[in-house]
Amino acid sequence: MSSLKTPLQRIAESRYFVPATALLYLVLAGVLFIVTGTRTKGEIEIFLTQWMAKILWVDFLLILFGLLLCRRDIAAAFSKIGTAPIFPEEQPPPSGSWRRRLNTAGVWLALIVVAGFLLVTQVAPQTHRIYYDEDIYANMAQNIALTGQTGMANYATFEYGEYHINWLLYNKDPGGWPFLVSLAFQLFGVDEVFLFRIANLLYAGGILLVFFITRLIAGRDLAGLLAALIFALIPHNLIWSNTAAAEAPAAFFGGLVVLITLVWLRTRAPRHLFLLAVILPFACTLRMESGLLGLWALAALAIAKIGTAPNFDDPAAGPPRHPFATREFWALGLVAFAFFIPHLWHLWAVSGHSWGADGAKFSTFFLAKNLKTNGLYYLDNAAFPLLFTLLALAGLAAGGGRRKGPAGGSPGLVGPRLLMLLWFGLFWGIFLFFYAGSYRYGADVRFALLSFMPLAILAGIGGDKIIGTAPNFGSFASPRLPVATLLVLVLLFSWMKFVPLIRLVGQEAWGARYDHDHAREFVKRIPNRSIVLSHVPTMFLLWGQNAIQSYAGINNPDVIRDLMMRYDGHVYFHQGYWCSTLNDSNRLICEGIRKNYDLVPVATAREQTTEYGLFRMTKK
């Protein structure tokens, strides 16, 4: 019996449990609504700027504690796949033989993970793809690591190694991804390469998650291996997992929530419920739409069967009750609710932001266009392998019965494949109503990443079903081996046509990409004690260069005058991508700086008709 369960049982058996729990839920709900009702959105943003990182720290420490409680379960899960055969045979090869080793899921899963890691780091280009959001994420991580504040800096300086933020703006994107990166920045120093490396590792971790979720649902290692392979090969999964974007990390934590939910429904162990209660709110802070994970988890718990799953820690206790009928669910639900409240405040505070466009952001007006575009994405075999989609449909249509295997099954659930469909539907469907939700709207194909895990899981189940219903080739050691081998070869050959796409950097955001590359070279030509006016100060701050927003040159001339004195005239204007756009406000800022200051070029560059440069500023 776990060390966590005993105190929980004592609390749950108390006669004061029900009224006390109800009161605490009312208190938390009161705090939520009182703050949103009595504080302005700006005041809430200021509060979150100061406290969000601290809240995430507490949640993260509890996640580590939950993982420590589950350490034996995690070790047991990996040890089982290290010995369980993929193809159970009546007369297995001798222990220790190479054939026996190759017939274990652990060996093949390790090969898939290693191959996927090599593909994402060596084939997919390491580059930014959404400018300049990835610089904002990195600067937010920098600010959390060095000052404990959550936001993007519009004016900050480095004074002999000490980082000072003068203007901090709360960002519309949640702080979960920057917080994770800030941990690396604290340990190893500020370097944007850590964003790429963490994304790479989470992609590899996603392969493992897909395997274990599929294994839990289908009850067979082969289904899990097929799902892991398909997830590893999805082209845009590879492309975006070597960027600093938040979608790949959000997909990983979404898969983690799904796995822990399914595990707890099977085991009903309090330690698993505790881990779910602390990971779920953290996962919701990776992306705005990640809050849909809460809806998925509630749906999974709501349709759980009663009386089919044994009590993992106490088999003699009999079959478990429905999750909503257990006191431990409501007790640990308080923990999840408490950590989820700041995310709800965040959603409320940023709800009035422009999101880069005028007019409605969510509307049925966008449904028809986005439905056609985002539906064809999985069917036209142009950016997503059609075979993967067909296998997913086969997995969805597979019969309810599960062939017996070493992994067991997934008791305690009604329609686990339908839960995978719901997972896909939530994260595919939400963007159908978003003004920029089309997978062919700029770089917004990245939104598709949130749908890849459930598709890969269903595809693995579909592939396993096809192998299981194929003719029996009895002349082989395992009658299913040739069919499985053929299916894997077909998967690989159908995927090869997408390798050029995976290698491609492309023309998307070429103007901003050249701006980013040239700016990095430009700053090497100016003194350390200098400051740059830029539309993207976060980019320069990440490189250790003092920076301030360009609009200060127009709106805050006294600040610029003081900076010219402070830095002995070494104040520079960065003419970047935003000076060449059709956006009137950005162009007017650049024109105003040219009008009010004399600009002496330090470094210039050109790409097509766009001019980039760094100019030393002096007052006219």
Which properties best describe this structure?
alpha/beta, seven-stranded mixed beta sheet, globular, 26 helices, 58% helix, 620 residues
Structure description:
With 620 residues, the chain is an alpha/beta fold. It has two domains: 5-127 and 194-503, no CATH class; 136-187 and 510-619, no CATH class. Helices cover 58% and strands 8% of the residues. A seven-stranded mixed β-sheet has the order 2-1-4-3-5-7-6. α23 links the parallel β3 and β4. α6 (105-123) runs antiparallel to α9 (193-218), α9 packs parallel to α19 (452-469) and α17 (386-397) crosses α19 (452-469). It is globular and about 85 Å long. 44% of the residues are buried.
Would you kindly provide a brief summary of this structure?
By secondary structure, this protein is of the alpha/beta class. The protein has helices spanning 5-12, 17-38, 41-69, 71-83, 98-102, 105-123, 133-147, 176-188, 193-218, 221-233, 235-240, 247-267, 270-283, 292-302, 327-349, 367-376, 386-397, 416-429, 452-469, 481-495, 499-503, 510-522, 537-542, 552-555, 557-566, 584-596; strands at residues 152-159, 162-169, 531-534, 546-549, 571-575, 597-607, 610-619. It has a seven-stranded mixed sheet with strand order 2-1-4-3-5-7-6.
